[in-house]
Amino acid sequence: MRSLVPHRRAAPAKRKLQKVPYVELYDGRLQGVVSSSSDPARVYVSFIEAGSGNYACSTNNNRPCGGGGFCGHIRALVENALAQYGADRVARYLGCADRNLASESDIARQLHGTKTAHDPGVVFARFLDYLRYIELPSGTEPLPEMAWFVTG
Question: What is the value of pTM for the model shown?
Fold first, then answer.
């Protein structure tokens, strides 16, 4: 018999919030915001589509990333998703056949998508929307919408 009570997930591992302040599994994609290593005022919006493995990376003002293939921004996004959600959940979500993944390189080897065009504004707007929760007065009640922000 199946239970309607949700299973408790293990606490996520520590993430590098300075490098990847936002990562989520949403709308058939692993997506998020990655800080630039060369310019503190710039961020990159990156994603990988579940199933196809297609990916994209560009700045928040729609300038393309200079890295080729799975650039450093996408690798950082995957690394932090693995810490946040666990390898099995990320692999299952992306549709990887092998679920015994330990690193972003393992996922990159399994996904054979191509670079695709995208609108970074959608992901960036979700990130900005979640940032408004940080300004709320603190309390003891959980905010389910902030589950992605837990760092362990």
Answer: 0.77
Tokens 């005022």, located at residue: 41
Chain position carrying tokens 């997930």: 9
Count Cα neighbours of 99 within 13 Å in the Cβ-side half-sphere.
7
Alpha-helix runs per DSSP H in 3-150? 72-85, 87-94, 104-110, 120-131
Domain membership of residue 10 (yes or no) is: no
pLDDT digits (tens, 9 = 90+) for 47-106: 999 989 999 999 888 888 888 778 899 999 999 998 888 888 888 899 887 766 666 777
> For residue 43, what are the domain limits?
22-132
What 8-state DSSP symbol labels residue 132? G
Write the CB contacts of 19 (distance below 8 Å, at least 6 apart in sequence). Answer: 34, 35, 76, 80
Phi, psi (deg, nearest 5) at residue 132: -65, -25
* Number of continuous H segments (helices) and E segments (strands) in the chain: 4, 4
Q: Return d(Cα 88, Cα 82) in angstroms, integer.
A: 8
Terminal CA-CA length for the chain: 32
110 within a domain of the structure (yes/no): yes
Cβ–Cβ under 8 Å, residues 143 and 133: yes
| pLDDT, average across residues 10-17 | 65
